[in-house]
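Long-time lurker. I teach an intro course on protein structure, and each term I like to show students one example going from raw sequence to a predicted 3D structure in token notation. This year I'd like something fresh instead of my usual example. Would anyone be willing to generate the tokens for the chain below so I can use it in lecture? Attribution to the forum is fine with me.
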Amino acid sequence: MTATPTPTAPDQERPAEEPPTAGDSFDRDVLPSPPGATGALLRSLLAPMKARVAVTTLLLLLQQAAVQAGPLLVAYAIDSAVPALRDHDRGPLIAVGVAYLACALASGGLQYAFIAASARVNQDVLLDLRGRIFRHAQALSVDFHERYTSGRLISRSTTDVESLRELLDEGLQELVTIVLSFVYISAMLLWLDLGLGAVAVASFVPLYGLVRVYRRRAGRVYTQRSTAIAAVIVKFVETMNGIRPVRAFRREAANDAEFGALNRRHELRNGDALLEMARYVTGSRLIANTAVAAIVLWGAYRVADGTLALGVLAAAVLYLRRLYDPIDRLGMFLNSYQSAAASLEKIAGLLAQTPSVPEPSAPRQLPPLEGEQPGRKVVFDGVRFGYRTGGEVLPRFDLTVPAGQTVAVVGSTGAGKSTLAKLLARFYDPTGGRVLLDGVDLRDLAVPELRRGVVMVTQEAFLFSGTVAENIAIGRPDASREEIERAAKAIGAHDFISALPDGYDTDVRKRGGRISAGQRQLVAFARALLADPAVLILDEATSSLDIPGEKAVQRAMATVLRGRTAVVIAHRLSTVEIADRVLVMEHGRIVEDGSPAELIGGTGRFADLHRAWRDSLA
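-- Reply from a regular --
Happy to contribute to a lecture. Here you go:
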């Protein structure tokens, strides 16, 4: 028995043509990137701001110099200014007080200037990075977006960029401050007293080992944590985008269980990160307190013995506290650094992806159209194609569509119909053979030239947030309001648009949710008509519509297709009636080719399909 053909959405067809593979790298959250890509990305972000980075660094150097002068002034006060005061000489003590106040004021002022300068640098870096992610994601080919979920892209531009923001806003200042403190204080301690300085420097060895261990362990944990939050975002976005089937098939409980499992995994990874931080803080404080206690005891013995000045010991203790206090902050920096490094690695992996449909190095122009007919000749010359995750969909495909001809393509699910449309729109490139437009290989056409010549209208008729007029003008952004309205009138959409609250200025809202599916399809056809392409691809353009909506869209189709070359992917055989020619596909091959009347009057596959369709209408 021959089944009655029914509407099928393109993504229902795709699994048969492009089966998923568990080993596909797109199933992983971290995309592969060349060695050193993360560092190269960070350098490229900072390169345009070298001068501002240098000024910011200088401000921090001066601020630290003002801060670290304090213990030296204390040592001078104890060993020189106080004894002078006993001799009724107040000058040294007043000088110390004035100098200490000046250092405090200078430190505060320089800190303010540093924060203001670094904030501008940080925000410009983040602005550049978000722009790069958005532009690069748009430039990547359709096959990338069909395999790498939108939730992961959202995670890259939000959670991962936010991790980098935290590092830039707080972490880098902490790192530079800690490094400068270590260098400055070590030098001061060695200058004040070689023995005390040597003990302090020796304590850096176990601290360095502790930092290395923490970095290695925390790096692994933060990569896992970043992956876990990305999985949470992916699940959330997927569920909200599919809320209608979720409600229709009562998936709430199952989705809640899956989301709960992902949420718990994220909680566990957060707990692991906190445990690593706790281990580091405990170890660093143990080392620091032991070193301080040893130096204080030895220094006190030497003061009592007369071999060390009391002011030098006081300055050494103050410097030691300033040296070891930032150790905890170093842990916080490493905390931010590991999180940001894991995020930056993922962003670098995304930005390292190259389009599978590249721009030609030497683009060609299409030849001028001949005569008044706007259509162009389409040729599939020995085309072979297979998705990278599945077998060959088109084993060898040859087809010639004369300029101005409308070809309807029908066939069972998985026959290769949508693949044919994607190749003609150059969403993919063939793995063998060529697709020619008036004798020019599509791979030789620059993208703007190709998009002016070939336009695709899909089943979903996607509308963007904005007005009706803005959505129609996507077909030709420089079109006037008069041209927009003329296209809508030609399609038959003007009446319903005029009846909207604000007419052409009515906001259609997210995905065009303010208007019906049939009205969205009419807007999409007006957009295509305004673009005035030579070749039009209609992929299941009426399959989701009711009978009145389908009739309206078919009238619009007749207007849009007039004189143009068209490839119409159809499941509803009512759509086929407007075609000059019908192709029946099976397993990537054309098994029938002829006019609708010829095939209906025959005894082949299309005649069976047409007979079953007519019976279903009785």
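Some talking points for your students: The longest strand covers residues 392-401. The beta strands are 378-386, 392-401, 406-411, 432-437, 440-441, 454-458, 535-539, 565-569, 581-586, 589-594.
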